[in-house]
């Protein structure tokens, strides 16, 4: 049976974002950097919003996960702000690389905590059927959000 649990899906998204960051680091021209920032924004914003709605909300009721969720939601808020700033900044600006690095480090920290502590807590709360249902709901919500972003 295919592993379509929320954990597998989130890890796949995390790998996609990691690859975009790697491409951004090696990109040498402004148009490529700006295209990659647009792709990163499309991926990360939809991921974060869908995660907040589908994965974090049901975990908030668990007392031992609540603080981690509140911190993760704040990290999503800061990531969204940094993405907006990076998107508005010319990729030729001397601050562009520094801002991209700060964003990457913030996302890496978030992913490390999420795949470690948060996944451990979630696995104590959700059974395998719920994990698959959350995975399907996450994918549907992310797809909806991405379509909404494209239309805007």
Helix content estimate: over 70%
Summarize the main sheet: none
Total count of strands: 0
Structural class: mainly alpha
**Secondary-structure element sequence?**
HHHHH
Termini Cα gap: 38 Å
**What is the molecular shape?**
elongated
Q: Work out the radius of gyration.
A: 16 Å
Task: Give average pLDDT, whole number.
Answer: 93
Task: Give an account of the 3D structure.
- α1 runs antiparallel to α4 (96-125), α1 crosses α5 (128-151) and α2 (30-60) runs antiparallel to α3 (63-88).
- The chain has one domain (6-151).
- It has helices at 6-26, 30-60, 63-88, 96-125, 128-151.
- With 152 residues, the protein is mainly alpha-helical.
- It has five helices and no strands.
- The model has no long low-confidence stretch (mean pLDDT 93).
- It is 87% helix and 0% strand.
- The termini are far apart.
Strand and helix layout:
Layout: H1 6-26, H2 30-60, H3 63-88, H4 96-125, H5 128-151
Helix pairs in contact: 1-2, 1-4, 1-5, 2-3, 2-5, 3-4
Structure keywords:
87% helix; single chain; 152 residues; mainly alpha
Quickly describe the structure.
The protein is mainly α. The protein has one domain (6-151). It contains five helices and no strands.
């Amino acid at each position: 049976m295919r592993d379509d649990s929320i954990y597998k899906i989130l890890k796949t998204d995390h790998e996609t974002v990691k690859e975009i960051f790697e491409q951004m680091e090696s990109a040498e021209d402004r148009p490529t950097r700006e295209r990659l920032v647009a792709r990163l924004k499309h991926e990360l914003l939809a991921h974060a919003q869908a995660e907040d709605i589908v994965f974090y909300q049901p975990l908030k009721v668990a007392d031992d996960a609540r603080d981690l969720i509140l911190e993760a939601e704040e990290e999503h808020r800061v990531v969204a702000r940094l993405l907006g700033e990076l998107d508005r900044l010319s990729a030729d600006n001397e601050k562009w690389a520094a801002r991209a690095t700060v964003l990457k480090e913030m996302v890496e920290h978030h992913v490390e905590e999420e795949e470690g502590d948060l996944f451990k807590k979630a696995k104590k709360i959700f059974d395998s059927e719920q994990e698959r249902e959350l995975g399907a709901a996450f994918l549907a919500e992310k797809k909806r959000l991405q379509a909404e972003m494209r239309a805007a």
